[in-house]
Amino acid sequence: MEIKYMLMKTKLLFIVVWGLFLSEDFFAQNESTYTIHVEIPGTLHVMVTDDYRQIIPDLTIIGNINDDDILFVRKMPNLVILRLEDANIAGNTISDRLFERLYRLETILLPKSLVSIGDAAFRECTGLKNIHIPDNVTFIGSRAFWGCTNLLDLKIPEGISSISTYTFFGCSSLTYLTLPSGIISIENSAFRECSGLKNVKLSDGVLAIENSAFRDCISLTTLTLPTSVTNIGMSAFRGCTGLTQITLSENLVFIGDYAFWDCTGLSRITIPNKVISIGSYAFYNCVGLAAVSLPNSVTAIERNAFQRCKSLSNITIPDKISVIRTLTFSECASLTNITLPNNLIQIESGAFDGCFSLSNINLPASVKSIDAGAFQYCYSLSSMTIPNNVLFLEAVFFVIVRA
What pTM did the predictor assign? Predict the structure, then answer.
């Protein structure tokens, strides 16, 4: 069914009256799908009587529309399907917040000519299950689909170069996702709390996984980072408790603070040969992590990096590490063997605190400082040889308390 108005600027009053008359006559038919042709943007409200505005469940709009038309659509209390693929929206843009919190909408087909989706455009459309994003779209704004908790399926167009901050935050029903080859950056919290996300395919070209990008994606089990990735941001995979296997990029350089905090299902990880820095708390509370391979390219392992890795049994510290930071291996209860680098200078406070199973350790001659509590509560460590070069030895560096 279609209503088509040949609108003429010189006869607008006549058109309004004619439109109202035809609207009542047309919508009187007992059908669920309605099609309206809008010639002049902003005139949708004169084509639909209030009675029919209240009952339309499935609406197709063709012709020319603008934000005012969408604002009228928002007033349709029973609308669940909106088809705009053959409409032309002003500026070829979905404006910021245009559909925000339109809770009842379940399906929307966007205009084929669309090129941009604004910030928070569909934020908290909690009823939205399906959306078709046209191939011409080159930009999706920050928080565009934040909190669309029922969004099931999504295809991101090839023209998109980055996933903006918080774009899909809390889209908890998304399960599978393939990112196109044009993506360079996955920005802060882009997929944070997508708790149903099981599989993500990243294309080569992505340079950075930014802060909290996949934080708390608890259903994510395996992931391969393309070789283009050089940086994993702070908390990027924090709280991904279901993650059991991740293959890191061979060109990775930085692992940020808290990057894999609380990834309790992770059992082993190989750090690539170009990594130079592992951030503080990077693998904190990875209680299932039993094996870690650290390359000699690493020059810094920051504080608490492997704290509470309770399954870790042995580890070799890279040659370029000169300081073992505060609480780096604290509470690694299964750690029985550790190989220290020959250039080690300082062991900071609590570095091996609570390593209950550590029974033997050889300190290299290069060590000059051992700080307070460095080996506190290492119950199995019965003796230690202190190198002659040690200049600073804190009185309580070695405390064993037996029950």
Answer: 0.88
Contact 221, 244 (CB under 8 A): yes
Final residue belonging to a domain, choices 288, 312, 336? 312
Same domain, 166 and 301: yes
pLDDT at 232 over 80: yes
pLDDT tier at 12 (50, 70, 90 boundaries)? very low
Range of the domain at 354: 321-403
Q: CB-hemisphere CA count at 13 Å for 395? A: 0
Mean pLDDT of all residues in 176-187: 93
Examine residue 52 and state whether it is found in any structural domain, yes or no. no
> Would you say 120 and 99 are in contact if contact means Cβ atoms under 8 Å apart?
no
Residues 124-144 have a mean pLDDT of 97
Tell me the per-residue pLDDT of 327-372, one tens digit each, with 9 for 90 and over.
Answer: 999 999 999 999 999 999 999 999 999 999 998 888 999 999 999 8
Contacts with 113 (C-beta within 8 Å, 6 or more apart), sequence order: 88, 89, 92, 134, 136
